[in-house]
Each structure stands twice: as structure tokens, then as C-alpha cells.
Amino acid sequence: MASQKFVDQLNVQIGNEFAAHQQYVSCAIYFDALTMPQMAAFFYRQALEERDHAMMMVQYLLDADADVQTPGVEAPKNGFDDIVAPVELALAQEKRVTEQINQLTALARQENDFASDQFMQWFIKEQVEEVSTMSDLLKVVQRSADNPLLAEEYLARESIGDGNGDGDPTAPGAAGGAL
């Protein structure tokens, strides 16, 4: 069974993942209001991915017969000064989540909780991808700040974050299945 310290921290992380979901919804709404459908769709997909991460963690705790807590989250930042700001915020968020995932993994190892350590490995791989994606997108929006349609064109052409990674057979199962 999972160590209680790990369970407690994973419950905190569930809240962090739901907060990331809410923040990405806010970013998507900002781009939707600007009639930037590619950027909006990208952030709506990112929001769903963060929700799925939380539900994967919920399922793990259920499978480990551990107590699951669904913490409340702070309101996300709403409204941005320009098209660069939400992507800067998203990159900072992904870097913060990476650190949280690394800390969870370290805690599992410290507790000799090998099952939880193994569970966290997929998230480590996922965070490398997430930081890379946001870093690339930030460079694009910085270059296209004066012509936002270039960012739209980039997303349409490159299909980053388009869900092509869905169906990863190594991904943990999510509570509620494929809702």
C-alpha cells in the first residue's frame, strides 16, 4: 500500500492539477474572446489533460485503497495584457508542476514506496513533454506578438498539443474512465 506521507502529498497534487485545469480554461477563454480558435483549442485541450492527470491520481489512490481528498482551488488568473502573457503563465505553471512531480517521486523513494514511485514515472515523462511544448509555443507567440495570426498558423500547421499522444498505453488509468 502507498505510504501515508505520499498519499497526503498526492491529494495535494490532485488540487494542483485541478488548479492547472482551471488556469488553462481561463487562458482558453482569453484566446476564444480574441477569436483565436487555434490557441483557444490548444488551451482547452491542455485543460482537459490536466483534469485527466488529476483523475489518474484519484484512480491510483482508489486502487491503493487510500483516502482521496478533493481540495478546493484558488481562482485562476483571468484577463491578460497580450497574447504572450497566458503562455508565459502556462510555462511557469508547467515548470512548477514538474518540480511538484519530482518532489512526489522523491518522497515515494524516501518512503520505500516502490509502487508509488513507479506510478510517478509516467508523470515525469509527461512533464518533459509539457515544458517543451510550452517553451516552443512561448517562442512562437513572442515572435508573433504583433501579428497573432502567425501563432494561429503555427498551431494549425504543427499540431502541437493536438491529442496525438492520447491513447498512450503506458498512461495510468483515470477515475471515471474515458468520460
Radius of gyration: 17 Å
Q: Whole-Å distance between the termini? A: 27 Å
Q: Which range best describes the helical content: under 10%, 10-25%, 25-40%, 40-55%, 55-70% or over 70%? A: 55-70%
CATH class reads Mainly Alpha
Count of strand segments: 0
Described by the principal axes of the CA atoms, the overall outline is elongated
Q: Tally the helices.
A: 5
Overall CATH architecture: Up-down Bundle
Largest sheet: none
- CATH fold group: Ferritin
Instruction: Detail the poorly predicted runs.
Output: none
Number of domains: 1
Structural class: mainly alpha
Describe the structure.
The chain has 179 residues and is mostly helical. It has a single domain (4-158), classed as Ferritin, core subunit, four-helix bundle (Ferritin). It is 69% helix and 0% strand. The chain is built from five helices and no strands. The chain has helices at residues 4-33, 37-63, 84-110, 114-143, 149-158. Helix 1 (4-33) packs antiparallel against helix 2 (37-63) and helix 3 (84-110) packs antiparallel against helix 4 (114-143). The protein is elongated, with a radius of gyration of 17 Å. It starts with a helix and ends in a 21-residue tail after the last helix.
